[in-house]
């Protein structure tokens, strides 16, 4: 069967008709469904094109080789010829056959195809991407298609360009790489899907889609989302980060946004997110550890509070002296002192909460840190008793013993299901111990049993917790 009959054409069909017929037959004979039929169809298409181009080249050559018939011109009047002007007549040039070069075959640039495919996938239209892929004639060859698919997937794994998951699935399905036999690592492929999709949604042009996916479409929530993303994607500078982190809500909101974006897998975030910004805000929001960002933000907030108290102190000084009599500097110092005291009080409560968390955590693996973690409670009990003995006033050490007892009980009960009411009663009991100790001191009661009670509670809770963490068995189980 001739190639023209295979395509359903007449023998004198031109190149345009051949391409139309091939495209129509290609919709019925897909390479992935019928490889042999596709190879036969493609061979017929190439043969028909070659025959058509050869026929056109022969027609051009025949037209060029046709002899030119001269048209007789009217005879001119006879002119006398001088003898010295006689010369042999010049021969007319013989027309030669023109060599017509074959039509150039379009070359397939693999690198350009990969970049254009990635750019079209980044546009986010999966249907348009699929139509474009089916229209690339070079991909109608199975060998070229396999080579292009391998190069494209390798570039996507290496670059992780932004594109939605639908476009990535379209590329993989077109090249037959969307199944387990293609050699993909399922976990790596899933991470690639999330990485490219997240990079596409984090682009400024897709901010509306991201806000809709995170349910942050309201105006206030959208402003917070834009501010957090701008902060994460700008270069890190300590001064700018400390100024932006003065509101505690921004710190916590940024950390929650990162958690919602990647679910704790920070390697899924694209390169547009600055890694130093990411580490700063996550460390600043982690209340379980003392870190440099947390300490720096605490200092910046205290400094901001002191600076903001100066106008208030000046106002109080102006009101105290009366209008027209100057400003009294006394209220300025009092206001600054009150703000500093409140800041130190907040810092002390934060340090105490951090100490309680550290004691409730598992014992550190380090040699000296493990010893300090295990022996802190007895050390504080000894300090409290030593203060009472050296001051010749047994009640002088009860605040240390009170805090030590609370720390030991919190260490022992941490992680268990303690009802909120029981925690409240425990706090009330420890708070009421202070006026009780003062009343016993004023009544001139011997306080030895009172301080011993605090020490016994602290050591007892510490011993129970230590036995639970590292049980010593006197009898080996058979």
From TrEMBL:
Signal peptide: none annotated. The chain crosses the membrane at residues 298-320, 332-352, 372-390, 396-413, 425-441, 447-467. Keywords: Membrane, Transmembrane, Transmembrane helix. It comes from the Bacteria. This is J domain-containing protein.
